[in-house]
Amino acid sequence: MPQWFVKGLRRGVVTTRYPARPDPLAAILPGPPAFRPDALTSRIAEDLVRICPSRAFARAGGTLIFDAGACTACGRCRDQAPAAVTVSGEFELAATDRSALIKRIPLRGEASTDEVTA
Amino acid sequence: MSSEPGAPAAMPAGLDATADELRRRIARQFGRSLHIRTLDTGSCAACEQEIRMLAAPHYDLHRLGFFLTPAPRHADLLLVTGPMLRAFASAARKTYDAMPSPKFVVATGACALGGVYQPDEFSYGSVAAHLPVDVWIPGCPPSPLALLQGLMVAVDRMAEKASQLTFIAGGTL
User: Fold this and answer.
1) Contact B58 A97 (CB under 8 A)
2) At what angle do helices B144-154 and B46-53 cross, to 10 degrees?
3) Domain edges within chain B
4) Domain boundaries defined on chain A
5) Confidence band (pLDDT; 50, 70, 90) for B4?
6) Fold held by B31-156
7) Which positions in chain B touch A83 (Cβ < 8 Å)?
8) Three-state DSSP state, A95
9) Residues of B with CB below 8 A from A25's CB?
10) Tell me: the pLDDT tens digits for B41-73?
11) The CATH number of A35-117 is which of 1.10.760.10, 3.20.20.220, 3.40.50.261, 3.30.70.3270?
């Protein structure tokens, strides 16, 4: 709020330019996680499935299924496995198809078996 | 989505393409003026807080041709929050039926998308289990910027990005 006030005094306009231009405040929004497949072992994946309070994770063979629509950006997965889970910083997540929000994340060393077991 | 009188009645081969084209034509008609009715089907009100901020000077949704209306009969788009409680289901259906066609339904927030509550005797668990949803906006709650992007996707003024995202760090995120 104070920075909007200063900005308003300087330019006379407080309104964001989004969507014509990116909004700098978007960088500090809470967002869904991003994953590092080289550090994501099957044991970590099982932990994530267990701790997620909104059931955004599921296991299917050699992949971790992540439902960005179910994610509440609580950050528990990042606290559980900081080496494998980071912040995506993405907020433009609107989808015209619910299944477009369900992503398959390969696990370390098991990516080749994905097609066989999934 | 309702069909137009002039649209071909049966086109088995190119039906999907026809439906997509019709959807885009309807969206373009709404592109300059869209009236929004919000519907709380049992949310914690965090989503409502963010929707309310859309009308504040920083986001100012009116500059983009979006308007909030209290009357379903004036609304083109139903912005639905919450996990669709069964006690509210008939009211939600009446609201949807009262809106003139063509109309959009946008599910807003993780509850409405089916992430937080399982279907049980109290709630359907997601909006899509009770109403036909056109656009899904994730987030808990979705920020006003995310809501703006969802509305722009609904009226086909912005392309949806979600299907391109991989959520793999350092990849094609």
Assistant:
1) no
2) 70
3) 31-156
4) 35-117
5) very low
6) Rossmann fold (3.40.50)
7) none
8) strand
9) 145
10) 999 999 999 999 999 999 999 999 999 999 999
11) 3.30.70.3270
**Measured between CB atoms, does A37 come within 8 Å of chain B?**
yes
Q: What is the pLDDT of residues B93-144, one digit of tens each?
A: 999 999 999 999 999 999 999 999 999 999 999 999 999 999 999 999 999 9
Flag if B136 and A69 touch (Cβ within 8 Å): yes
Write down the pLDDT at residue B22: 83
Report ipTM (2 d.p.).
Answer: 0.84
Predicted TM-score (pTM) of this structure: 0.86
Pairing of strands B104-108, B77-81: parallel
Candidate from B115, B145, B152 with C-beta closest to A72: B115
Judge: A68–B163 Cβ closer than 8 Å, yes or no: no
SS3 per residue for chain B: CCCCCCCCCCCCCCHHHHHHHHHHHHHHHHCCCEEEEEEECCCCCHHHHHHHHCCCCCCCHHHHCEEECCCHHHCCEEEEECCCEHHHHHHHHHHHHHCCCCCEEEEECCCCCCCCCCCCCCECCCHHHCCCCCEEECCCCCCHHHHHHHHHHHCCCCCCCHHHCCCECCCCC
Find tokens 């309070």 and name the residue.
A53
CB nearest to B60's CB, from A15, A33, A101:
A15
